[in-house]
Design goal:
- This protein is of the alpha/beta class and 386 residues long.
- Helices cover 40% and strands 15% of the residues.
- The chain has 13 helices and 15 strands.
- α4 links the parallel β3 (108-111) and β4 (129-132).
- The two termini are 40 Å apart.
- The mean pLDDT is 97.
Length: 386
């Protein structure tokens, strides 16, 4: 028994939760936030700050820089320079701002599909076109298609790539060798790489992710890394993230973009959230990772045993289960809709993540085991209706 109780069921209905704003009979396991309270050390720091009672304009603190630099050096072996770190209000605002700043309308932004659906919003809403390089899916596992990747990067209209590292929704940790090849190709074809690393701390115990910026001179020259404590510590509503850009010219462009778009100023709790998470949240995270991947393994075993026509993709990162339902012969948006109508289980259709997600469902397992068990029973019932 650990110090922290992840079996506690926290009632989130009636708390303005995007995830839980559903019918009373429905069970939401879709959007990627957790049903756990954040680390008690963070709650205590918030309570102390709130008791002060004044919430005026805030500066980015020295402690904020030191917390990011310390965490990435201790946990991930990356030494970041203070003057290359930029505060921003979120990874998605940062990505959208960077797309605006570094492209002109009708240029192309490369993504490896199936991939986080909001990337498409950041691309299309800023007048650019998504350029898909589908991942290879063989033997139940995903890998990069480097021939296709090079062909797409060679397109003179391809200016940016958004890399998901680790990859959402397939739960893949990219290797140092794979990332080095991405960096080399990007530098060869003058493509800037935005590496979304928000899921980096949610990895299977014993498995660690590789920061894109740590891999090679090529990766440092072309890379813009987006990081945050928010996914790891369930702090998405705190609007707190960072962008790390080692290249001096690229750093200046990104800094200007974030400031022009007014997404580079913290609210009263944003810096405190990051500082406390990174300085005091290590033990909580260690226990969380064990609990989450216990859920992942339980779900995979359940599906293999009870829903043999479905297949859960092997996952070493994120708390999102990517489920192959191709054997049912229907698009996943239809499947997800039917499951929700028949059982109340609300999970994500793979069609949202690009054409290659058509035969998949995404299920959020960042919740107490009792919720996972109920969700899997509903999934079995829903798929049984097909």
């Amino acid at each position: 028994m650990g110090r922290y109780n992840f079996d506690e069921v926290v009632v989130r209905r009636g708390t303005d939760s995007m995830k839980w704003d559903v019918k009373e009979s429905e069970l939401p396991m879709w959007v990627a936030d957790m049903d756990f309270k954040t680390a008690p050390e963070i709650i205590a720091a918030f309570e102390k700050r709130i008791a002060h009672g004044v919430f005026g304009y805030s500066d980015v603190t020295d402690a904020w820089y030191e917390a990011y630099i310390g965490w990435w050096k201790r946990l991930h072996g990356l030494t970041m320079e203070r003057d290359k770190l930029i505060f921003c209000t979120g990874v998605v605002p940062a990505i959208s701002s960077i797309v605006r700043k570094l492209t002109t309308p009708n240029e192309k932004v490369l993504v490896q599909t199936p991939v986080y659906n909001i990337f498409f919003n950041s691309i299309v809403n800023n007048g650019c076109r998504p350029l898909e390089s589908p991942l290879k899916y063989e033997g139940g596992e995903y890998s990069m298609d480097f021939e296709d990747l090079e062909r797409k990067m060679a397109d003179p209209q391809c200016m940016l790539m958004i890399l998901c590292n680790p990859h959402n929704p397939v739960g893949k940790i990219w290797s140092r060798e794979e990332l080095a090849r991405v960096g080399a190709l990007a530098r060869k074809y003058h493509v800037t790489v935005i590496s979304d690393e928000i899921h980096c701390d949610i990895t299977r115990p014993g498995r660690e992710y590789v920061p894109f910026a740590s891999v090679s001179d090529d990766c440092r020259a072309v890379g813009i890394t987006c990081i945050a404590p928010t996914k790891t510590f369930n702090l998405a509503g705190m609007q707190s993230a960072a962008v790390y850009v080692p290249d001096e010219l690229l750093h200046h462009k990104v800094w200007r973009g974030l400031n022009t778009d007014e997404v580079a100023e913290p609210n009263s709790l944003a810096c405190l959230a990051a500082v406390t998470a990174f300085n005091e949240g290590g033990e909580w995270l260690k226990e969380l990772r064990g609990y989450l991947f216990g859920n992942v393994d339980y779900a995979r075993e359940y599906i293999e045993r009870e829903i043999p026509r479905a297949r859960a993709v092997k996952s070493d990162a994120t708390y999102l289960l990517w489920i192959d339902v191709s054997a049912y012969g229907r698009p996943s948006d239809e499947v997800a809709t039917l499951i929700r109508e028949k059982t109340g289980l609300y999970i994500s259709a793979g069609t949202a993540y690009g054409a290659t997600g058509e035969s998949f469902l995404r299920m959020n397992l960042a919740c107490p085991r009792a919720t996972v068990e109920e969700g899997l029973k509903r999934l079995k019932e829903g798929l049984g209706n097909l």
